[in-house]
Amino acid sequence: MDNLKEDNPILEVKNLVTSFPIKGGVFKKKVGEVQAVSEVSFNIYSGETVGLVGESGCGKSTVAKTIIGLEEPKKGHIYFEGHDLTNITHKKMRSLRKDVQLIFQDPVSSLHPKMTVKEIIQESWKNNPGTLERKFWDKEVIKLMELVGLNPDSRNNYPHQFSGGQAQRINIARALALRPKLLICDESVSALDVSIQAQIINLLQDLQKELVISYLFISHDLSVVRHICDRVAVMYLGKLVEIGDRKDIFQEPTHPYTQALLSAIPTPNPWDIIKRKEVVLEGDLPSPANPPSGCRFRTRCWKAQDICKKEEPELLTRSCGHLSARHFAEVDKTYIPTFRETTK
User: Fold this and answer.
1) pLDDT tens digits, residue range 144-157?
2) Contact (CB, 8 A) for 37 and 11
3) Are 220 and 234 contacting, i.e. CB atoms less than 8 angstroms apart?
4) Which three-class secondary structure state does DSSP give residue 52?
5) How many alpha carbons lie under 13 Å from residue 343 in its C-beta half-sphere?
6) H or E segment and range at residue 307
7) pTM (2 d.p.)
8) Which of 73, 84, 155, 198 could be cross-linked to 118 through a Cys-Cys bond (beta carbons 3.0 to 4.6 Å apart)?
9) DSSP string, 213-274
10) How far apart are CA 49 and CA 219, in angstroms?
């Protein structure tokens, strides 16, 4: 990790804001907006895996779609290898897009049902002329299928002929066809069985070592995030509330929301269930169209004080040693971590 941070980040997101209009009335005029992503900033270094976690609807996927260009940011900047993706020509964006690929959540529906595996993978080169000469396409398809653990003899089969795990391997092979430098994995294992999840995660880790790829790993499964990620960013209602190394987040979380998420992780050790402090979030998730004043988490926080209603806490490096958006960001000594750190 330390040698990664000596270099410039491959991806740098600064004060990113992405919003969607709320339309009403007969003429469908704009009557408000939902700020799905609000002033989000983080970076990813070469060969690093950063996890982005939070409840459903917190804005994780919108961050991914904005980075890849599927959503238009309202404010902020996205730098990829020094190029500002929010202020770039279409031609330059097209040339850079092959370096950032996305693995979707549903492995089957993200594959064209009327195209063979061979055609699906070759489509990447077809849409990016000059990437690979046509005479090498067949050989490269075989190579990619072997790389992700698929039998090349099935390259003329259709997506419905594969299992969910095999379909996700096809997605990974398609994403790797352009030799990207950054892979965005948006809930890429959540639709798979546990045993298949382990295979895909091990595959991603092996590919990272072999090809030196960076990952933005979006997930709600913190046990998976702990296994694969170097750093973790926690998101709540469009904002980042805590960022730190995996060990810091899982052993010394400072934000109450992070503590609540970690306390909900199932553990195979029954003694941990007895010893650890369970945190139950009360109340409903506020509407992103009308977020609470001050700290957005205060309406569900058992430690909220008057200052939390008046002032929004900044995401700053606190005495705990990592970034936290909490007015009183000391390590909670009563909190017992769900996991003990082991060698990754």
Assistant:
1) 999 888 999 999 99
2) no
3) no
4) strand
5) 0
6) helix 306-310
7) 0.86
8) 155
9) -EEEEE-S-HHHHHHH-SEEEEEETTEEEEEEEHHHHHHS--SHHHHHHHHTS--S-HHHHH
10) 12
Name residue, tokens 């509330």. Answer: 241
Q: SS3 of 11, please?
A: strand
In terms of Cα–Cα distance, which of 190, 146, 153 is closest to 169?
146
Q: Which residues of 324-338 are buried (b: 16+ CB within 10 A; e: fewer)?
A: bbbbebeebeebebb
Query: What pLDDT sits at residue 266?
Result: 72
> Does the pLDDT of residue 329 top 80, yes or no?
no
3-state SS, residue 321: coil
Q: Tokens 């769900």 correspond to what residue? A: 338
Q: Report which DSSP code applies to 39.
A: E
Residue pair 35/238 in contact (Cβ under 8 Å)? The answer is yes
How far does CA 89 lie from the centroid of its chain? 26
8 Å CB contact between 221 and 190: yes
Strand ranges, E, within the chain: 11-24, 29-44, 49-53, 75-80, 83-84, 100-103, 182-186, 214-218, 231-236, 239-245, 316-317, 323-324
- Are 339 and 249 spatial neighbours (Cβ–Cβ below 8 Å)? no
Cα separation of 204 and 309, whole Å?
Answer: 42
Task: Copy the structure tokens of residue 285.
Answer: 């998730």
Model pLDDT, residue 276: 57
- Say if residues 111 and 120 touch (Cβ distance below 8 Å): yes
Mean pLDDT over 179-208 rounds to: 87
User: pLDDT (tens digit, 9 = 90+) per residue, 226-284?
Assistant: 889 999 999 999 999 999 999 989 888 889 899 888 887 776 665 554 455 667 777 77
